[in-house]
Amino acid sequence: MPPINLTKHIEALIFSSVQSISVQEIVLALNAVLEQEFSETQIFESLAAIKQKYIDSNCAIELVSLNNGYQFLTKKEYHETVNQLQLHRSKKKLSQAAMETLAIIAYRQPITKLEIEQIRGVNSDYSVQRLLEKELISIEGKSEAPGRPILYTTSGLFMDYFGLNNLSQLPQLKDIAKEENTIGETAE
């Protein structure tokens, strides 16, 4: 059985990694820090011990092998709870300007930043950048207009975020416009 110290170092590496960590990365990190040569066999033995520890214990997380690496993930029975928290947090972080920009992109896509700014009447650099960082929009390509500006569209994450299967499910203006907001007589 591998030394407990080795297992704890591996557990710390996996815990601190944002994405899955490969056995090769674990070996490199351990060999550098602990100044000793560890084999992949020793690492696999420790990984098996860590995996068993989380299976046996009453923890909400487990060690999962994915993408040729290892990562701690929430056990399946807690996914819905964690998902609600993530949705709540991500929804809170969209500013009014970002929501306006996202709505313009959703309804007018593909669209350039200049067109967004013409509709909003203000600079939209920051909002577009935040939406790209949150992966709610993506770059579709370049327009044929002079200067070949970048075209923006909504992403798959946008669809998940708002619970849509396709863009035709976006509310239409007639669905959200109130009659008291109209001016003059309505034509029949």
UniProtKB/TrEMBL annotation:
This protein's record includes keyword Nucleus: no
Keywords: Cell cycle, Cell division, Chromosome partition, Cytoplasm
Name of the protein described by the UniProt record: SMC-Scp complex subunit ScpB
Origin superkingdom: Bacteria
A Pfam family matched in the record: SMC_ScpB
